[in-house]
Specification:
mainly alpha, three-stranded mixed beta sheet, two-stranded antiparallel sheet, 15 helices, globular
Length: about 325
């Protein structure tokens, strides 16, 4: 298997338990490793894992100083994240809003991540009970967050981003996990009962389905190491794969994670998925195939979005003004 430049090193250093010595680190191309870490948003994760495994002593001083600085910046940023998350959580709890924090916020708030510096986080994503959406938005706006626009005519999984100029993180209120799909659960409120029954299984399913559908991992036959690391965190807690549905669409995720050598999950009837498996491998081995395949995927995804974007642009004044003036 031919890995993208620097990717094999990143997988060895972050995911593997095999002990590595100075000779291994002397052979690393740190430019490629830096590029790959940056593209996967894993520079602070790399520092955390290297420190935990006592590998920092093998690194060139310039590279060590660089990833340490990124880690500290990210840790300070996530400390502020928790301040903002806890403020919102208190308001929601006080007003009996049924909610679940999603993505990076959930990992830190739930205690799955002990070190605030290891994971990069973009927004504060919150799933809210369907009949409490409007109330939750009103409460967030009382905290001086404002929305530029909402999707009005299509059932997007979250409402418009809410931004407070005095806060670092934007807030996204979710009414669903996936866009216009019932692959996970049919009703919004079912999420909360499943979460209470087994929150690790809830996180695992959400990580996989979010990547496959919201991030188009299934269409593109593509995966991000940051996504694999989130799943790796769950496995490190003792979460058992057998608790997860071993059928479509999860099989597609496991095919990719096995090829990436971050999991070793037995897949029944693997021949049924030969096209997807070989397409994934070819995209990683043949650059021309990768470029052509990505172009075709871009066209398919763009076409899928045209009805939504056109309708919103014509009939949704806030959306239209946001798109026209967003760079002004």
């Amino acid at each position: 298997m031919i890995h993208f430049k620097g990717e094999k090193n990143l997988i060895d250093l972050v995911f593997k338990k095999k002990k590595l010595g100075a000779e291994y680190f002397n052979k690393i191309n740190y430019d490629y490793l830096t590029i790959n870490c940056s593209s996967n948003l894993m520079l602070p994760t790399l520092y955390y894992e290297l420190n935990k495994k006592d590998y920092l002593k093998y690194l060139p001083s310039e590279f060590l100083n660089f990833i340490h600085e990124i880690y500290i910046i990210n840790k300070n940023r996530n400390n502020q994240l928790m301040t903002e998350v806890k403020q919102i959580k208190k308001v929601f709890d006080d007003n009996h809003i049924n909610h679940i924090f999603l993505k990076g916020s959930e990992f830190i708030l739930s205690g799955l991540i002990k070190d605030y510096g290891l994971r990069m986080i973009g927004d504060i994503d919150i799933l809210v009970s369907e009949n409490q959406i409007n109330k939750s938005i009103a409460l967030i706006k009382k905290l001086k967050y404002r929305s530029k626009y909402d999707f009005k005519y299509f059932n997007h999984r979250h409402l418009g981003r809410l931004i407070n100029p005095n806060k670092i993180f934007a807030v996204e209120i979710h009414k669903n996990i996936l866009n216009d799909r019932n692959i996970f659960l049919k009703k919004n409120d079912d999420y909360f009962s499943v979460y209470k029954e087994n929150y690790l299984a809830f996180y695992a399913k959400k990580i996989i389905l979010n990547h496959l559908y919201n991030d188009y991992g299934l269409i593109r036959a593509k995966i991000n190491l940051k996504v694999l690391y989130d799943f790796h965190i769950l496995l490190e807690t003792g979460y058992k794969i057998k608790q997860l549905e071993t059928k479509k669409p999860f099989i597609y995720f496991f095919i990719m994670s096995n090829i990436m050598d971050t999991t070793n999950i037995e897949i029944n009837n693997i021949r049924k998925y030969w096209f997807f498996k070989n397409r994934f491998i070819m995209k990683r081995k043949i650059r021309l195939f990768y470029v052509i395949d990505e172009f075709v995927c871009d066209v398919i995804i763009y076409i899928k979005k045209i009805p939504m974007k056109l309708t919103e642009f014509i009939f949704n004044k806030d959306y239209r003004e946001h798109k026209i003036f967003k760079n002004v």
